[in-house]
Amino acid sequence: MSKGRVTSGMRPTGSLHLGNLLGALDNWVRLQDEYECFYFIVDWHALTTPGGGDAVGFENVAFLRTRVKEMAIDWISAGLDPEKSSIFVQSHVPEVAELHLLFSMITPLGWLERNPTYREMVQGYKIESPSYGLLGYPTLQAADILIYKGDFVPVGRDQEAHVNMTRDLAQRFNSLYGKDVFPITKALLTEVPKVPGLDNVEKKMSKSTGSYIALSDDAGATTGKIKSMFTDPQKIRKDDKGHPDGCVVFAFHGIYNKDEVLTVRSECEKGARGCVDCKMQLAERMNMALGPIRDKRMELESKPKVINEILRAGAEKAQGVARQTLQEVAEVMNLPPKEIF
Ligand code: SF4
Asked: Does ligand 1 lie within 6 Å of residue 244's CB atom?
């Protein structure tokens, strides 16, 4: 028995990395068994920022299709199951654009201008002239969620505010038109491990700094990146006493080598463990854990038609729900039917 509908999306701006896997995808996979899940690749959202270099954006669309395909492969390799969840591309359900337009009529401009994420994005991406689409992205996000009547959106503790605008818009719509067409979406808070960048234990793994391990990296590339991870700079020789809390390698032992992490800490602090061996042990554990994902990736890369079919079937199911919602919206808003007279 499903506990309700979960909706969530990801922007296909670049390669997925361990931060995406441990911070979102692993949780999405778990949710499939308890909720009816709609997971979508938000290609329109990727166009709200300019992009550049490797990153997709409205000024850099050359890789957009490739990124969408890669993301679908990563999702399914990580365990999203098309038999359990609807997996599709945002723009393959154009009804979302229609709901976005209708929502934009009832979204007060002040809500968008006060959105802290908008300001962070303008500063973070150094955008001189932000677009109408970027300012309005929370309205599009609300349409993405509410068109499928999403009860929950899985978020980390620091992202709870992202759901607020969707909840406010649902309440405003329901109150304006006198009917509870939309659910009041809630954040589904999840504890996820902190996944550091390779060069700094305090910073989150991120595509923008280039300091990440991609799901598409093979075992050799992963081992190479682990060898270059930041460690305690005061620990030069094996018998130097180390400080594991500032070490990126240690942080990953906490994720991929849980059974031995206490031993790693104690040996490091006593000077009974060298950084080279410590890194090789981590590489072995991490490569073992990522092996099944890589095998599935290789299999799917050779079967593009399978991916097409999964995305097509997912969009078809999602579109059925979206059309039904739009019909309810048209009725309460008194939009004229085609045969008006
Ligand atoms: S021994 Fe391991 S945990 Fe200690 S500083 Fe070196 S890499 Fe980090």
From this structure: yes
Q: Give the E-state strand segments of 53-120 in sequence order.
A: 86-89
Q: pLDDT tens digits, residue range 286-327?
A: 999 999 999 999 999 999 899 999 999 999 999 999 999 999
Pick among 3.30.2130.10, 3.20.20.80, 3.40.50.620, 3.40.50.720: CATH of 5-195+304-332: 3.40.50.620
* Rounded average pLDDT over 317-341: 94
- Residue 121's identity, in one-letter code, is M
Both ends of the chain: CA-CA distance in Å? Answer: 44
Count other C-beta atoms under 10 Å from residue 128's C-beta.
Answer: 7
Q: Which CATH architecture has domain 219-297?
A: Orthogonal Bundle (1.10)
- pTM (2 d.p.): 0.92
Q: Give the ranges where 204-260 is alpha helix by DSSP (H).
A: 219-227, 248-256
- Nearest ligand 1 atom to alpha carbon 229: 7
Domain ranges of the chain: 5-195+304-332, 219-297
Tokens representing 224 are: 């190479």
Cβ of residue 278 lying under 6 Å from some atom of ligand 1: yes
308: left (phi over 0), alpha (psi -120 to 50) or beta: alpha
Any ligand 1 atom below 6 A from CB of 235: yes
Q: Using pLDDT thresholds of 50, 70 and 90, give the confidence band for residue 2.
A: confident
The pLDDT value given to residue 5: 97
Closest C-alpha to ligand 1, atom 7: 275
Pocket test for ligand 1, best of 228, 235, 270 (most atoms within 8 A of CB): 235
Kindly give the number of the ligand 1 atom that is closest to the alpha carbon of 269: 4
Highest-pLDDT range among 114-128, 157-171, 267-281: 267-281
